[in-house]
Amino acid sequence: MSFRISYRDALGVDRLVAVADAVEGAQMLVRGLAAEVPRAGGRLSVTEEPRLDFSMQVVHPPYFLDNPAALPVVYLDGGAGTSTDWQTAAIASLRSIPVVIAHSRGGASSTRQGEPDAEAKWRERHLLLADAAVFWFEADAHDTASLLESAAAWDYTPPLALGAAPQWQLRGQLYGVLRQLDVDAVVHDSRDATLAHAVTLAEEAYAVRPSSNLLLPGAAEGELSCAITQPIPGRSTSERISDVLVAAAHAATRSTETLLLTRLHVALDDLRRDDGDPVAWTELYDVAAALQSRH
Fold first, then answer.
1. Contact, 77 vs 135, CB < 8 A?
2. Taking burial as the number of CB atoms within 10 A of a residue's CB, which of 11, 104, 252, 274 is the most buried?
3. Residue 105 pLDDT greater than 50, yes or no
């Protein structure tokens, strides 16, 4: 069992700051961070994460994945309300490969009052992060066409492991959606064939991912320092903030620099409100300097 320590930013997204093995240690860490960074105190929380580890991570609504710490992301979606728990079989089939699984139906609904499109936003965000996507539709699946139809508004579709039972009544509509979106994908007739294809895609994605940062926490923290001090030319401030957030999430899975990560998120929140805030920029560069001095 592990526990996630998160900072809820101004956008309402829980950003990973640290992982603890025991709830007592996580709560002690939160108290220490709140004392060191008072402005962050009311935004820090502890959440049980039974599957959070460094060989496989399963993330589902309402939790968001920012960056998979050099692991490939496999997006898992498909038929709802089926009599067969095919998603558990999919997760089991991928367990031998170091991946992060974004499981759209693995948790409670993320739709909250005032946010009727929270589920759609979750799906869009995680498909954009995915290295591969797996869709399987059982014969008794319902309310599924909208999942693929919504992809028409998305800019990126990862390689697909796609399948539908021959008896599924919307199979013909699925082919129509694929033609409309100009998506070139084989539609498998069985769950086993679909999951075998998913394993192949995950293995291919992992083979081309840099793996050194999985073993070297300092490398991830160095990457974060570079994201702050050496921005990609031509990026806007909002894009630069996104780059820093990705690097911060990568570092948080392995880092012991929880205080620096908390300070960083406070500074980023200030920059969202005023991207010319000199105090926030100074704080950001101070965090980078502190990370650099440690590695």
1. yes
2. 252
3. yes
